[in-house]
Design goal:
Layout (H helix, E strand, L loop, with lengths): L3 H4 L3 H11 L2 H20 L4 H10 L8 H10 L11 H7 L1 H9 L4 H8 L10 H12 L8 H10 L1 H19 L5 H10 L7
Helix pairs in contact: 3-4, 3-9, 4-8, 4-9, 7-8, 8-9, 9-11, 10-11, 11-12
The site of one fe (iii) ion has 7 residues, from helix 6.
């Protein structure tokens, strides 16, 4: 992986930049998602460099302050409803504007995969699914069900999206927190994959 095609920085220089943006723990997770994305790209005949870069950058904006996100929503005239949500939704949906500003990344497919990496979408490309699933199954993740998610991801990206989304919805409902409508749209679009063999 060099990534120079997309950001005009070598992977090494990009990693130095990332160290100024996120904690060591977060960077470790981002590197885990990069690796899982490359793996999922390889087994799904997708471009490994593109997947790796999307995976590596997906949580770039995770440690921005709420004030910075709110300022970006104003600056780019984004849907004002976004202001009713929080970091969970903002770091992807709004984070892509920070990535464009800081890194000059213009690739629409990579930006889209990062934009929806938390909430998914009813229409996901292979790259969208790779990043969404890699975020859930990367090697540092440890929660009940992660091994089952890894097994499913080996067989079918669509089934892995369905499994992950169902568990996320269940988890959020259990915590009694609001569910972003797009998360429910993803659930509805993929729910049939939970019942097919
Ligand atoms: P992370 O950034 O690597 O921690 O993973 P994600 O970007 O997938 O998720 C970030 C957080 O958002 C997690 O705590 C999820 O449970 C939470 N999350 C995912 N979907 C929703 C949603 O629809 N609504 C809310 N409120 N939180 C969500
Ligand atoms: Fe995230
Ligand atoms: Fe993540």
């Amino acid at each position: 992986m060099t990534y120079e095609t997309y950001i005009g920085l070598t992977r090494e220089s990009l990693l130095e930049k990332l160290q100024t943006q996120v904690s060591q723990k977060r960077l470790k997770h981002m590197l885990g998602v990069e690796k899982a994305s490359v793996y999922l790209a390889e087994i799904n005949d997708y471009d490994a460099e593109k997947a790796g870069l999307a995976g590596l950058l997906h949580d770039y904006a995770k440690e921005l302050s709420d004030e910075e996100f709110l300022a970006l929503i104003d600056k780019y005239d984004l849907n004002p409803d976004l202001k009713n949500w929080g970091n969970e939704v903002w770091h992807g949906m709004v984070g892509i504007y920070k990535i464009q500003e800081d890194l000059g990344l213009t690739d629409k497919e990579i930006l889209r995969a990062i934009e929806i990496h938390t909430v998914g979408s009813s229409h996901m490309t292979t790259l969208d699914k790779i990043v969404y699933v890699a975020d859930y199954i990367e090697a540092n993740r440890d929660f009940p069900g992660v091994d089952r998610a890894r097994e499913i991801a080996e067989k079918s990206l669509d089934k892995a999206v369905a499994y992950e989304t169902a568990h996320t919805v269940e988890h959020l409902a259990h915590l009694a927190v609001p569910i972003y409508p797009q998360t429910l749209e993803t659930y509805n679009a993929y729910v049939d994959y939970l019942r097919e063999d």
